[in-house]
Design brief:
By secondary structure, the protein is α/β, with parallel strands linked by helices. Helix content is 44%, strand content 14%. The chain folds into two domains: 74 residues, CRISPR-associated endonuclease Cas1, N-terminal domain (Ribosomal Protein L15, Chain: K, domain 2); 221 residues, CRISPR-associated endonuclease Cas1, C-terminal domain (Four Helix Bundle (Hemerythrin (Met), subunit A), Up-down Bundle), CATH 1.20.120.920. The longest helix has 27 residues. The two termini are 19 Å apart.
């Protein structure tokens, strides 16, 4: 399984040779074994690559993220399916009962709110909102029909950012970081879902017929607070969303977490989390271990500028 996240910021030409990805930025070739790569993020619209390369990347299970002129991730490319029993897995997705899906969604929402509570406590201390989020997490019912998720999100973001904060406001610096970080994690979850033979359109709670990634948008919910915590410290007191911040947010997949009684990288945790969900659908597991932000080792703030990236 690949472990490198390749971030291409400058104009470059990409090619293949002897099972290696070759990147040329006009200063000589950089050779990277395909077996080492899990995802490529292309943040420069002048980058060139061939249809053959896209085909090989898909065959190797390597995801590709493309950004737009504003450097926001806008497209995800990956294999249509690369699992030997994809039809069988999708059958399980389709036949899974609504009641069980509703129960899973309640657990996801509950963990998301609990993770938001932890983030608030780490950043703000024991504020009143921490108690309110604890109450909301206890009130979540099957299917979250009382919409505790939305109520918790309002209190959570207003506490972190002030009463005037809006997730839709592009002028707020933190929103740029959150959108970029969410997109990177979302892309990696999509890659993992396809790798385990699941159809990403068949969601747990999200049912939008125009959304190709309903399942991904369900599974990402407990992971959003991981991005929130890192982006908050990364961008606090900053004036602009800089290229180095995009580098660092891509690198969140290489941050350390404690999950399932093991130390691992966030990318490995996502792989195992998605595998558990697939196994649960097929009746091979009794429960899913949801990501817990308590096990996330946020890099020391003073070292943010010195982190290493695969560029």
């Amino acid at each position: 399984m690949g472990f490198r996240i390749i971030f291409i910021e400058n104009e470059a030409k990409m090619s293949l040779k002897l099972d290696n990805l070759i990147i040329n930025k006009g200063e000589g070739d950089i050779w990277i074994p395909l077996d080492d790569i899990s995802m490529v993020v292309i943040d420069n619209l002048q980058t060139t690559l061939s249809a053959r390369m896209l085909s090989v990347l898909a065959q190797e299970g390597i995801g590709v993220v493309i950004t737009d002129q504003k450097h926001n991730p806008i497209g995800i490319y990956g294999a249509y399916d690369n699992h030997s029993r994809v039809a069988k897995t999708i059958k399980y997705q389709i036949q899974f009962s609504k009641d069980l899906y509703d129960d899973i969604w309640a657990e996801i929402v509950r963990r998301k709110i609990e993770n938001q509570k932890v983030v608030l406590k780490k950043i703000m201390g024991n504020v009143v909102s921490v108690v309110e989020l604890e109450q909301f997490s206890r009130e979540v019912v099957s299917g979250d029909i009382t919409n505790r998720e939305a109520h918790a999100a309002k209190i959570y973001f207003n506490t972190l950012m002030g009463q005037s904060f809006s997730r839709g406001n592009e002028d707020i610096l933190l929103n740029s970081g959150l959108d970029f970080g969410y997109a990177i994690v979302r892309s990696f979850i999509a890659r993992a879902c396809v790798g385990y033979g699941m159809n990403t359109q068949i969601g747990i709670h999200h049912k939008n017929e125009y959304n190709r990634f309903n399942l991904v948008d369900d599974l990402i919910e407990p992971l959003r607070p991981f991005v929130d915590l890192y982006a908050y410290f990364l961008l606090e007191s900053k004036e602009y969303f800089m290229p180095k911040h995009r580098h660092q947010l891509v690198n969140i997949l290489n941050h350390k977490v404690f999950y399932n009684n093991k130390n691992m990288f966030l990318s490995n945790m996502i792989e195992e989390y998605v595998e558990q969900y697939a196994s649960f659908l097929m009746g091979n597991r009794e429960c899913i271990l949801l990501p817990d932000v308590n096990g996330y080792e946020v890099p020391d703030e003073k070292n943010f500028e010195e982190e290493d990236y695969e560029v």
